[in-house]
């Protein structure tokens, strides 16, 4: 599998982009013309650098407004093209992308467009250059790959084929299955991009919001499956126009891009089975169905430990060699760590996921270029496998049975209300939110749920949950408004009877986050709950939600440093997070 990336995906100057692409292991790049024009290096220097870096220059793009024009205008097109063919010769390149006319087309006639592409191909052939014709989703007349293919077929020239771009096809809802009817030798190039589901004009969607495969909501494995079934064996090239990636570290973006292709190849191979050919597979990992532990770090974790005890956790002992203490409540395990770290404030530093088999899971993470975490272990201690996620939280692949004996704690008291970790909510920096979605999708096989937005007093909070098929692991990723980062990560503990748990916790001194009276008046109006239930909710500062699947009762603790806790009780098959209550929480927390 040859991998390629368009320079438009990365920030920086052309040379910087090339170093980043090479560093991330790409075989090739597409040169996006504005990058070359702005570069201080000559085409010969760029060519030599590519060769030194082991990159091939696979596509020069884009050449615009070539076809569907009147004869006078077409003379100018040939003139403009010839200058580009000369430039491509200096670069040592032989494939140019011609995108469907968006600006100057006046003739809506396939025969005319085909004739012009044929003449352009004749000229290209004299320079040893081939043309890949791409239907842009907003093309003036040609905005559908089936039409661009018909025109290429009519042009009937060995130097013209088509370029397929997943964005233009999937954003318009065009059926990609008919790609299989195109002869492989006529698919000259393949560009891949994902995108979030948005309802907006396709041009703005394409120029600002494209994502790497696995980060959005297009079905890229199915799409690539059709292209490979057609027999395409050229490079898989990423072409992602994205406002965030244009301003973040190109080396990191390029690695993220390479990770996305490795994930995509694996998913497509899975889908195609025998037909997949030489697509590289990743070691298989079944999504974890339980959290193993959460680690909280702080210069002083005592405030957190007081809260844990009030909630109902038992002290699970000190670690044999490390300065960490364990707290347990049912299958919920929290490790408190006083070792100095990035922030002195209490924060979630690590999350352990109970994966069925940690060796292949770790091998898979390594193949996906997840940075490994090294922690000192002593003789007789379990060397746990861990990787750093994009936001810096360490992700452990672990089983409590393997490490719990390293703590000197006693047995927890029996508790009919024993909790388990229901979800862990991690705040994401704005520049790595999409990368985090791909990280958890690819490394842990979690599935992204639809994005939600919640209004808080300081701005909108964007939230996307990554979850396992049976809902045992739920990982809401939150993007906070500007200036609110570094605040308010939390994890939720699910119990059987929250009313009993909160009443007991209050006896131990817990003060849940205060909920305003207006909220309970509204609950009565919305759900018509019985008076005594509303009185209990009000008394205990419990929040409530209900949908067709069941009910959700929950409450929050106050925030200590950067963390707070949530208690939840899911009734029946309720699968949400009380999103409607989030504005109330956010205002209370802003206090
Ligand atoms: O947005 C554009 O103009 C544009 C240019 C070249 C492409 O390959 C493409 O998909 C979009
Ligand atoms: Mg394209």
Automatic annotation (TrEMBL):
Keywords: Isomerase, Lyase, Metal-binding, Pyruvate. GO terms for biological process: 3,4-dihydroxybenzoate biosynthetic process. Pfam families: AP_endonuc_2 (PF01261), Glyoxalase (PF00903), Glyoxalase_5 (PF14696). Residues 420-558 form the VOC domain. It is an enzyme of class 4 (lyase). Its EC number is 4.2.1.118. Mg(2+) binds at residues 423, 490, 566. One of its GO terms (molecular function) is metal ion binding. Pathway: Aromatic compound metabolism; 3,4-dihydroxybenzoate biosynthesis. A divalent metal cation binds at residues 134, 165, 191, 239. Its cofactor is a divalent metal cation. The keyword Isomerase applies. It catalyses: 3-dehydroshikimate = 3,4-dihydroxybenzoate + H2O. The keyword Metal-binding applies. Catalyzes the conversion of 3-dehydroshikimate to protocatechuate (3,4-dihydroxybenzoate), a common intermediate of quinate and shikimate degradation pathways. Belongs to the bacterial two-domain DSD family. PANTHER family: HYDROXYPYRUVATE ISOMERASE, XYLOSE ISOMERASE-LIKE TIM BARREL DOMAIN-CONTAINING PROTEIN. HAMAP family: DSD. This is 3-dehydroshikimate dehydratase.
